[in-house]
Automatic annotation (TrEMBL):
This is Cell number regulator 10. InterPro entries: PLAC_motif_containing. The keyword Cell inner membrane does not apply. It comes from the Eukaryota. The keyword Transmembrane helix applies. Keywords: Membrane, Transmembrane, Transmembrane helix. The chain crosses the membrane at residues 85-104. It holds the Pfam family PLAC8. It comes from Lactuca saligna. Residues 1-24 are annotated as: Disordered.
């Protein structure tokens, strides 16, 4: 059988020059392409690109951690709660970096960011202020006004209308 006799996948009306190459499974059904990870907007040690954030992170890390956590958790818990938990862990155990590391991992998963320069927990253990500054800058780069919190950003995005979360469809008595 020559190469011109091979079965070609259907084009679905798209010209090959304009549509991305489809990947086909063994069943012949197109599968979506694997999404590649995006890159961080700034490096881990570029704290000087936002000096005010660097200063507040070094002197009172509970504030940026609370802001990062509230936005990463999509407003499920307030900035104040996250900041208070962070401070309690800092004062009582000195292991607050474990708590802040969780939000680096969540943010990386949400935005498909690479785990660099090393493991998330190691980054927070060795250089927590730099890691939190990078996370803060990344959220600002992605359009969040950190001072507004999650709901303030959603209200700004939706033109002043806060969209309610949908309840489950089952009836409750």
């Amino acid at each position: 059988m020559s190469s011109s006799d091979e079965i070609q996948p259907p084009s679905h009306g798209h010209s090959p020059a304009t549509s991305p190459p489809a990947q086909y499974s063994t069943t012949g059904i197109p599968t979506p392409p694997i999404v590649s990870a995006s890159q961080w907007s700034t490096g881990l040690f570029e704290c000087d690109s936002d000096v005010s954030n660097c200063c507040i992170t070094c002197w009172c890390p509970c504030i940026p951690l609370g802001q990062i956590a509230e936005i990463t958790d999509k407003g499920s818990t307030s900035c104040v709660v996250h900041g208070t938990l962070y401070t309690i862990l800092l004062v009582l155990t000195g292991c607050q970096w474990i708590y802040s590391c969780m939000y680096l991992s969540k943010m990386r998963q949400q935005y498909l960011l690479p785990e660099e320069p090393c493991n998330d927990c190691l980054v927070h253990f060795c250089c927590e202020p730099c890691a939190m500054c990078q996370e803060y800058r990344e959220l600002k780069y992605r359009g969040f006004d950190m001072s507004l919190g999650w709901y303030g950003n959603m209200e700004r995005q939706n033109g002043g209308v806060v969209m309610p979360e949908f309840a489950s469809m089952e009836m409750k008595r």
